[in-house]
Every structure is written in structure tokens, then in C-alpha cells.
Amino acid sequence: MLKPLPTPAEMAEWDNRTIRDIGIPGLTLMESASREAVHVLLSEYGSVSGKKVFCFAGSGNNGGDAFAMARILIDLGAEVSVFHTKPKKQYRGDARTNLKWAQKLSISMVHLPSIQAPLPQPDIIIDGLLGTGFKDTLRESTLSIVREINRLGRRSFVLAIDIPSGLNGLNGVAQPEAVYANATATFQAPKLGLCLPSATKHVGCLHTCNIGIPKQIQSKHSTRHYLISDHALQSVRTPQQDMHKGTAGKVLVIGGSEGLTGAPHLTAIGALRSGAGLVTVTCPMGVCESVKANSPDIMTFPLGSGSEWEVSMAEILLEKVPEYDSVVIGPGLGRARKTVDFLKSFVAKCPARTIIDADGLYALAQHPQLLSELRNDTILTPHPGEMAKLINSTTEEIQRNRLNVAQQFVTACKSVLILKGAGTIVTDQDVTCLSPFSEPNLSVGGSGDVLAGVIGTMLAQGHTPRDAACIGVYWHGATGRLLKKNFPARGNLALDIANSLPKAVQQEL
Predict the structure, then answer these.
(1) Is residue 233 part of a domain?
(2) pLDDT higher than 90, residue 236
(3) Dihedral (C-alpha) 136, 139, 142, 144: value to the nearest 10 degrees?
């Protein structure tokens, strides 16, 4: 379900351990990388015979990859020129070895400390200027080369080696500019920065190439970050012939208030469409029929006689909760003072596996001491605005530092956190997982309510909280991608998301 996303430092550790502990030479890894990158080029571009190729080679290992690719491309009939950023005598190690091999094949080489005049137009550009270790601001000389690559790239196919030059491999941010690639051949595993939304426009089509880092090395030196893969949906429970509604998961949704009755309805439909056997919405008696909205599939458990939540309802529900496998708290709950007081009384004592969403998060923000009292099988699902309230910050600050904010939050709160948005983050105190999806079709009111229902079903069916969160997030994202086909300009409703959940699984599997 999870694929490792090493940071640049973690990837360097894999390389060093492979070379030092296993004894596989760096030149072997570099040769594997260059050949895999050429395969990516051929699969994306087609034949290179007779094509003019410019390879830009920096002074590090990415430059060595570019020299090695030049050798291979010459043999495939390409007309290759290598533009190196350092004098030849300043290249060291494996990069120097590949430079020498390229020289012996009489490959055209040009020392290019900076762009003095526009270069002629090539068919293909190989970007090997900078690697994943780059984290500072581009020097003026390198910035001018990046700008020239991007100028030429408007009419050329651009392949980035491992990462587009100028992109930070840790946070995916251009510093201050980066190469715009048509495709990126990254090695062994995508680096963390490549999979963050800010990097997407630079990376193009991302190809992950196996270069021979042993699995033993990867296992011994595991990463903190992971990408949620399509295997997530293979973890969805396979229907059994002898199953019945009581064994398919019983979900309780606590929500609904005057004017906010659609949210718990969508959560309930999301839970049912993702396979829950029984879903009940509990809400004040006065809004019960509106929450049900003539859906015979949704059961209700009305409380009180009016339309408001009361503190006294907490004790009634605490007795009811053991009948359910999971609880979703918050959709459409409202933010009245009595509602917040109700949640304060209920949340800390709730014995069930719980998702806290929407107005439930607002209540936690009013009583932050409750965060430390939550069970470790609780899942919090804030969007950036709700996250800002939880930690007394701003939405802009959350979006600037999504990973750091999420990871710092779970060091103090032992629950699982889902920070929603493009490239949704799922994290606990041990592991951080990223969604591969950034789907505009999910940017509609009620979308998060549907997601909460899906996660409620996964929890109810016995998945661990982190796995339930990852499966739900992936399923939700895959559904957004499916909806894009029928609603290319958006316009789909949250109910369309819920109703398309079964089809999304069929598409993925």
C-alpha cells in the first residue's frame, strides 16, 4: 500500500550503504541509472536516431549520468552535444570517469559556465545540472542555464535526470526557478519533493527506475515518508459469501443541526457506498427527517425533542456507542456553545474508534486540552482552515509548511492526522504518507463529508487507523480522477463523489 519516499539525505544513505556495505561500485549504479533514463526517453519520445540532443552536465553525479547517457545516445544514432558547467579537470569520481569515456568517443563537449548567447534549437534536452541534494538558491550562472533550458524546452522534449534542476528535493519548491521537464527519470524511489503538489508542473511524467539498490538496504534504513499507492484499494475488504450487514461494519455518524443537515447525510452515503453494512445518523429530533432526506438506507437515532444539541445527550450516546464499530463526529454538527459543550463531554469518554471531522474539529479548537486526551485510534481530518484553528495559525502558513505542520502536530497529539488538500497528508507519530492525487473535482462542498464516511467504513471493517485513513484518502482521490472524465470542467456534486466510489474501485482494480 505504501511506497517509500526518501528525502535526499535518506537516498544518499541508500547509495552509500550499497557502495560501502554491499560493495556494488558507484559506477555500476550510475550505468544502471543512465540506461534506465534512456529507456524512459525512448518510451516517452520515441526513436532518437538523427535527433539533435543537448546534455547539460553539472559537476555532481547527475552530470555523470548525463555523460553516460550521451554515450548511449550516440550509439542509438543521435547527434549529441554535452554542455558541462565546470572545466573538465574539476570533475571528480564517477562523473570524471564517465566524462573521460565520453571524450574517448569524440562526443562534442562545450564548457558552459553561463549562457552568453542563445543556443541553437535541439530536439531533446537532458537536464543533468543539479541533483536531489540541491537545497540553496540557484547561483546566477546556473539560473541563466536553467532559463535557457526552459526557453529551448518550449520546442524541445526535456528529460530531467532524477529531479528537475532548481527544484528542492525535500519540499518540491523551485529556488527560485527550476527546469520544466516533460518527463523525469528518478532513481530507485521518488524523492519526497517530487511528489509534493508544488513540484508537479516541473516534473512532468514521473518514471521511477530501479537501479539496483538492494531491498535489504532499503529495509534496514527505512524512510519516514511514503506515497500511498494503488495497492491501497486492494486492501479493501473482499466480499465474503457468508457476510451479512452486521459483519460488514456498523458506522455511527454524529452530526446535523439547523441548516446543516446535508453533511451527515453525505457522510452516511459515503459510508454505505464504500461498503458499510449499517449506517446510523444520530442528531436532534427536530432535524432528523431533513438529515435522512427520504433515503431509506440511512437509519437515524433521534435525540431530545428540539433542533439543538444538549450536553445531556452525551451520556445517552456514550451508552449507545458500543453497538457500533466506528463513529464519525462532526459533519453539520454546528458551532453553538451548547454543541461545543456537548462534544467536550462526549469526545474524551468515547470508547469507539473515532473520526473527528468538520465542526467536531472546531470544538477541539475551543478546548485544545482535549487533543492530548484523544485515543491513538482517533483520526482527525482538518482542511487547512480547520488546521489553522487547531494550532492557532493561519491558512497561508499551513499551506506554506504542510509537512512540517502535520508532523509537529502529531508529536503532541497521538492521533492519526489527515491534512486535506492537494496532496493530502496522512501522518502519525511514526510515518507520514502522501496522497498521489490533486483532483479539482474534489474541491466541492460536502466532499470531505463523503471522505469521512469512507474512512468510517474502513475503521468499522477492522483496518488500523492509519491504514483506514490511507485507504480512504486514496479511494477518495481515485474517485475524483474518475469524475474528471465525466465532468472535465468540474460541476460534479458531493453526492456524485459518493455514488461513484464503487466505480472507482472497479477502475483501479
Answers:
(1) no
(2) no
(3) 130
The C-alpha atoms of residue 307 and residue 287 are separated, in whole angstroms, by: 6
Q: What does the alpha-carbon distance between residue 69 and residue 56 come to, in Å, rounded to a whole number?
A: 11
Residue 127 annotated as part of some ligand binding site: yes
Number of residues that make up the chain: 509
Say whether the peptide bond before residue 302 is cis (omega within 30 degrees of 0). Answer: no
Whether residue 61 is annotated as binding a ligand: the answer is yes
Query: Phi/psi of residue 281, each to 5°?
Result: -105, 125
Rounded CA-CA distance 274/231 in Å is: 16
For residues 113 and 111, give the distance between their C-alpha atoms in angstroms, rounded to a whole number.
6
CATH classification at residue 313: 3.40.1190.20
Residue 299 pairs in a beta bridge with 280
Say whether 346 counts as a known binding-site residue: no
Say yes or no to pLDDT of 283 above 90: yes
C-alpha grid cell for residue 445?
462542498
Measured CA to CA, the distance from residue 263 to residue 266 in angstroms comes to 5
Dump pLDDT digits (tens) for 456-472: 999 999 999 999 999 99
User: Do 260 and 182 share a domain, yes or no?
Assistant: no
165 residue type, one letter: S
Please indicate if the annotation marks 60 as binding a ligand: no
What pLDDT is attached to residue 247? 84
Give residue 508's pLDDT: 67
Inter-CA distances, 240 with 243, 248, 432, Å: 5, 10, 32
Q: Specify the number of domains making up the chain.
A: 2
242 in a labelled binding site: no
Per residue in 467-500, pLDDT (tens digit) is: 999 999 999 999 999 999 999 999 999 999 999 9
The answer on whether 484 is annotated among ligand-binding residues is no
Check: CB of residue 227 under 8 Å from CB of residue 474: no
Q: Between the CA atoms of 461, 467, 473 and 477, what dihedral angle is there, to the nearest 10 degrees?
A: -90
Q: What are residue 461's phi and psi, to 5 degrees?
A: -90, 5
CATH number of the domain that residue 197 is part of = 3.40.50.10260
Residue 202 has pLDDT above 90, yes or no: yes
> Which amino acid is located at 22 in the chain?
I
Mean pLDDT of the chain: 95
20: which DSSP letter? Answer: I
Among candidate residues 111, 36, 96, the one with its CA nearest the CA of residue 61: 96
428 is in an annotated binding site: no
Domain residue limits at 285: 245-508
In tens, the pLDDT along 317-371 reads 999 999 999 999 999 999 999 999 999 999 989 999 999 999 999 999 999 999 9
357 is in an annotated binding site: no
Q: Do the annotations mark residue 263 as ligand-binding?
A: yes
Establish whether 134 is an annotated binding residue.
yes
User: What does pTM read for this prediction?
Assistant: 0.93
